[in-house]
Amino acid sequence: MAKFGELISSNIPVLIDFYADWQESTNDLHSVLRDVAAALGDKAKVIKIDVEKNETLAGALRIKKNPTFMIYKEGEMKWRQTGEQDANTLISLVEQYV
Fold first, then answer.
1. From CA 75, how far away is CA 11, in angstroms rounded?
2. pLDDT tens-digit profile of 33-65?
3. Which residues contact 21 (CB under 8 A, 6 or more apart)?
4. How far does CA 82 lie from the centroid of its chain?
5. Number of Cβ atoms within 10 Å of the Cβ of 86
6. Which neighbouring-strand residues pair with 17?
7. What is the mean pLDDT of residues 65-83?
8. Which residues constitute the domain of residue 90?
Protein backbone atom coordinates (compact mmCIF):
# COMPACT_ATOMS: atom_id res chain seq x y z
CA MET A 1 0.00 0.00 0.00
CA ALA A 2 3.03 2.27 0.17
CA LYS A 3 2.94 2.60 -3.61
CA PHE A 4 -0.72 3.59 -3.40
CA GLY A 5 0.21 6.36 -0.96
CA GLU A 6 2.80 7.66 -3.39
CA LEU A 7 0.32 7.46 -6.25
CA ILE A 8 -2.43 9.48 -4.56
CA SER A 9 -0.10 12.11 -3.10
CA SER A 10 0.28 13.71 -6.53
CA ASN A 11 -0.41 17.43 -6.83
CA ILE A 12 -2.51 16.72 -9.94
CA PRO A 13 -5.80 14.80 -9.72
CA VAL A 14 -5.64 11.01 -9.87
CA LEU A 15 -8.72 9.19 -11.18
CA ILE A 16 -8.74 5.57 -10.07
CA ASP A 17 -11.00 2.85 -11.45
CA PHE A 18 -11.26 -0.20 -9.19
CA TYR A 19 -12.43 -3.05 -11.41
CA ALA A 20 -12.45 -6.83 -11.78
CA ASP A 21 -11.56 -8.67 -14.98
CA TRP A 22 -14.64 -10.89 -14.78
CA GLN A 23 -17.00 -7.90 -15.14
CA GLU A 24 -18.95 -7.88 -18.39
CA SER A 25 -18.46 -4.15 -18.83
CA THR A 26 -14.69 -4.17 -18.24
CA ASN A 27 -13.76 -3.72 -21.90
CA ASP A 28 -16.24 -0.85 -22.31
CA LEU A 29 -14.81 0.87 -19.23
CA HIS A 30 -11.26 0.48 -20.49
CA SER A 31 -12.19 2.37 -23.67
CA VAL A 32 -13.99 5.04 -21.59
CA LEU A 33 -10.87 5.48 -19.45
CA ARG A 34 -8.67 5.73 -22.55
CA ASP A 35 -10.91 8.56 -23.76
CA VAL A 36 -10.73 10.26 -20.37
CA ALA A 37 -6.93 9.95 -20.25
CA ALA A 38 -6.62 11.30 -23.79
CA ALA A 39 -8.88 14.27 -23.04
CA LEU A 40 -7.10 15.18 -19.80
CA GLY A 41 -3.57 14.66 -21.08
CA ASP A 42 -1.00 15.47 -18.42
CA LYS A 43 -3.46 17.51 -16.32
CA ALA A 44 -4.40 14.32 -14.44
CA LYS A 45 -3.51 10.67 -14.01
CA VAL A 46 -5.91 7.86 -14.86
CA ILE A 47 -5.21 4.56 -13.13
CA LYS A 48 -6.95 1.17 -13.19
CA ILE A 49 -6.60 -1.17 -10.21
CA ASP A 50 -7.75 -4.79 -10.35
CA VAL A 51 -9.44 -5.54 -7.01
CA GLU A 52 -8.66 -9.25 -7.24
CA LYS A 53 -4.92 -8.57 -7.53
CA ASN A 54 -5.07 -5.88 -4.82
CA GLU A 55 -7.43 -7.40 -2.25
CA THR A 56 -5.75 -5.75 0.75
CA LEU A 57 -6.07 -2.29 -0.77
CA ALA A 58 -9.65 -2.92 -1.91
CA GLY A 59 -10.54 -4.09 1.59
CA ALA A 60 -8.88 -1.10 3.23
CA LEU A 61 -10.83 1.25 0.96
CA ARG A 62 -14.05 -0.75 1.44
CA ILE A 63 -14.56 -1.43 -2.24
CA LYS A 64 -17.75 -3.52 -2.28
CA LYS A 65 -18.92 -3.21 -5.89
CA ASN A 66 -17.23 -2.64 -9.21
CA PRO A 67 -16.55 -0.39 -10.83
CA THR A 68 -15.77 2.07 -8.08
CA PHE A 69 -14.19 5.35 -9.13
CA MET A 70 -12.22 7.68 -6.87
CA ILE A 71 -10.48 10.98 -7.41
CA TYR A 72 -7.52 11.83 -5.17
CA LYS A 73 -5.42 14.95 -5.03
CA GLU A 74 -2.51 15.58 -2.65
CA GLY A 75 -3.38 12.42 -0.71
CA GLU A 76 -6.98 13.36 -0.06
CA MET A 77 -10.02 11.63 -1.54
CA LYS A 78 -12.06 14.29 -3.34
CA TRP A 79 -14.80 12.15 -4.91
CA ARG A 80 -16.03 8.54 -4.90
CA GLN A 81 -18.78 6.82 -6.85
CA THR A 82 -19.72 3.21 -7.50
CA GLY A 83 -21.24 2.28 -10.85
CA GLU A 84 -20.52 2.92 -14.47
CA GLN A 85 -19.73 6.46 -15.58
CA ASP A 86 -19.42 7.91 -19.06
CA ALA A 87 -16.28 9.65 -20.29
CA ASN A 88 -17.75 13.17 -20.29
CA THR A 89 -18.91 12.85 -16.68
CA LEU A 90 -15.51 11.61 -15.53
CA ILE A 91 -13.68 14.33 -17.46
CA SER A 92 -15.80 17.11 -15.96
CA LEU A 93 -15.42 15.67 -12.45
CA VAL A 94 -11.62 15.45 -12.71
CA GLU A 95 -11.38 18.95 -14.22
CA GLN A 96 -12.92 20.37 -11.03
CA TYR A 97 -9.68 19.45 -9.24
CA VAL A 98 -7.13 20.50 -11.87
1. 8
2. 999 999 999 999 999 999 999 999 999 999 999
3. 50, 52
4. 11
5. 10
6. 48, 69
7. 95
8. 2-95
